[in-house]
Amino acid sequence: MYSNVDIDRGFEGLPPFPEDVLTAPLRRVSLQKLLDSDLEECQRLWDACTKLGFFYLDLNTSDHGSHTHGSCDVAGDDSNCERIEGKRFADDAERLFSVGKEFFALATEEKSSYDLSGQGSYFGYKGYGAGFVDKEGNRDRNEFYNVSKDDILGMSERLPQPQLFDAYRPLLTSYMTNAHSIVSVILARLNEKLGLSTAPVPVLSGLHRRSSISGDQVRFIRAPPQPMDDRQASLGAHTDFGSVTLLFNRLGGLQVLPPPELTNEHGESYTDWLYVKPLPGHCIVNLGDAMVKFSGGILKSATHRVVNPPGEEQGKLVRHSLVYFARPADEVMLRVLRGQGSKMIDAAAAERESRGEVDEEITAKDWILRRALGRRGKAGYSMKDADGTEVKGKD
User: Fold this and answer.
1) Which residues lie across from 320 on neighbouring strands?
2) SS3 category, 229
């Protein structure tokens, strides 16, 4: 089942994505078909995750397929026994775009009071230009606000936050619950394709329990338009720190740098950055560093960045994004999952060893802190600490 929405119609009230812009070859994957364990769709997911690490997720789901698939049988976690509702997830995202705009309209002084980076935290507010896009010291051109999953779901002490978020905690709870359940489905299907153990729970799902303390978060992002004569990346080239990212945006600006082994229909390698066109009724999904490390490099995490929206009309507008970052539990060691049932991963690990590659001993929490705060030059970190698993390419 694929959504019957017109994916070329764009988003109401916004100028269309330019037709003359080269776009990345992202596959469309149906959430409903993943829920149904459709073999062909699981292969589409696998192809997307082993070649580029980016794909579109069609959120159209039927009533019968939305019951308990992100739940006990998939995630091995009783706290996850609820429905997965793709439409509700998309509707919640629409409402949260308005919440983000309400937050960013607050005075800069008030927003800055929720910058927690000085306390060694990646939650809270980051102001415009408070991060770096490269090692030359160029500053970013966006502001964002991170909301902790553990805070919203009552699993940790409440963090300082603007009063306006009090009224939206039920909405954030709904969004985060659905987001984590969707991630659980993706992880379970990849667990199957990798041949990892499923007893007593799928290995990948067990590393990402919703009830575990982790760096999972919702991020609201605002990037104002840049002058024609002074444009640069608003967010520099990087790979994501965690496991799975679910992204909603309406304007272009996200770009992916395909790896050299990915070719077009003419068998030619891509040589430049390609835009990712937002599609109605879909979220954009990409894998992060943790999945590369767990799989011994079988799964991919593509380098990406954010620039000004393409075209004259979109380029004049403020770009808002909404992201859910799913990350392993804080105490999980980011290393290849050797000896856990996957012959594929064991072989990849042996090959890495033959090349002299050794896993760094680091927990998910420390990896994320190092990379996130490295981009901000905070808590003793610098940009040299911000590198991930990205393939070095064009700036």
Assistant:
1) 222
2) coil
73 Rama sector, left if φ>0, alpha if ψ -120 to 50, beta otherwise: alpha
Residue 162 burial (CB count, 10 A) = 15
In this structure, is the dihedral angle defined by the CA atoms of residues 259, 265, 271 and 277, taken in order, positive or negative?
negative
Beta-bridge partner residues of 246: 285, 324
Three-class SS of residue 349? Answer: helix
Per-residue pLDDT at 62 exceeds 70: no
30: pLDDT strictly greater than 70: yes
Three-state secondary-structure class, residue 112: helix
d(CA 193, CA 213): 27
- pLDDT interval class at 109 (50, 70, 90): very high
The answer to whether 215 and 327 have CB atoms below 8 angstroms apart is: yes
For 129-140, the DSSP string reads T-SBSSTT-PBP
Distance spanning both ends of the chain, measured CA to CA: 39
Q: Which tens digit of pLDDT belongs to each residue from 290-328? A: 999 999 999 999 999 999 999 999 999 999 999 999 999
In whole angstroms, give the CA distance from residue 234 to residue 220.
14
How big, in percent rounded to 5, are the helix, strand and coil portions of the chain? 35, 15, 50
β-partners of residue 219 are: 146, 323
Integer Cα distance of 262 and 353 in angstroms: 25
Q: Which residues pair with 29 in a beta bridge?
A: 57
Cα 298 to Cα 343: distance, rounded to the nearest angstrom:
12
Contacts 24+ apart (CB under 8 A), 380-388: 383/132, 383/134, 383/135, 384/135, 386/132, 386/238, 388/238, 388/239, 388/240, 388/241, 388/288, 388/289, 388/301
Q: How many CB atoms lie within 10 A of CB 272?
A: 10
Q: Quick one: which H or E segment has residue 305? A: strand 303-306
Q: What is the pLDDT of residues 140-150, one digit of tens each?
A: 999 999 999 99
How many C-beta atoms lie closer than 10 Å to residue 168's C-beta? 18
Cα separation, 268 vs 194, whole angstroms? 28
Q: In this structure, how many other beta carbons lie within 10 angstroms of the beta carbon of residue 167?
A: 9
In angstroms, the CA 38 to CA 19 distance is 33
5 pLDDT band, cuts 50/70/90, is: low
Q: Which two three-digit tokens encode residue 336?
A: 């290849």
* Beta strand 27-30 pairing with 54-58: parallel
Placement of tokens 């403020």 in the chain: 318
